[in-house]
Amino acid sequence: MSKLKIAIQKSGRLSEKSLNLLKESGINISNGTSKLRAEAKNFPIEVLFLRDDDIPQYVEQQVADIGILGKNEVLEKGKNVTIIEELGFAACRLSLAIPKGESYSGLKYFNNKSVATSYPNILSQFFANNNITAELEEIGGSVEIAPSIGLANAVCDIVSTGSTLITNGLKEVETVLKSQAVLIANKELSKEKRDILDKLLFRIKAVIRSSENKYIVLNAPNEAIDKISGILPGMKSPTVVPLAKQGWSSMHSVVKEDEFWDVIDQLRTLGAEGILVIPIEKMVL
Ligand code: PRP
Ligand code: ZN
Hints:
Structural class: alpha/beta
CATH topology of the largest domain: D-Maltodextrin-Binding Protein, domain 2
Bound molecules: 1-O-pyrophosphono-5-O-phosphono-alpha-D-ribofuranose, zinc ion
């Protein structure tokens, strides 16, 4: 039986989270990242640990069938691959940054300046769209050091927490692109591999959903049940169970992580008490 080959980053911002996503999808990989490839015992998949920059090319050439990497790398490399799913982790942005002492007046600042970057394709497109004429210095890594060693006036690089910029005396002035981890695939997978990918995707989606939602349990006066059901629609509708105490019920539902605090306030206004919010392990629709 054929196996689906997945490429993930060997070491870097995405490696641990990529492995974790596979693990939470029930895919157990025998060894750590010590080797360059590993097989799963309980799923027809083989994991290849590669440099993230190389993953688009490997997926295009079907050295790997699918891969997990930053959308920024996918767009920069421009290889013929499909983005299948945004994975909701490793959020970052590709930004322009300048020495912190400089005053910034807007994009025209970059006219006739030199900018060090590992993203020449995305950046030259961005400057062209905005009618800016700048000189790009393409470098492979440690981009943030370029201004202080006199290699360029500014940089365009990935910012996540922003600490690398601060350490290098730079300030972020423009966002060129927002990015996060994505799953990419070769465009001509066999039927057999496509089936494995569908199974994997089903699991991955359940994991992503579970991290975006919480299980919520609360006690409510019976007259508030309708209104609370309106704010907590859940997956179909909330579960309502009568409490031993007359006139009260326990309600169970699901709430989106990012709506959680707003919803809690509304629930309390409606008379809800004893609100419990519990992480969800997996969520299958
Ligand atoms: C980016 C960038 C910085 C760092 C910024 O590297 O080149 O080194 O992340 O993160 P911070 O804002 O949290 O300090 P990336 O992880 O994309 O790795 P790579 O370019 O070496 O592949
Ligand atoms: Zn990289």
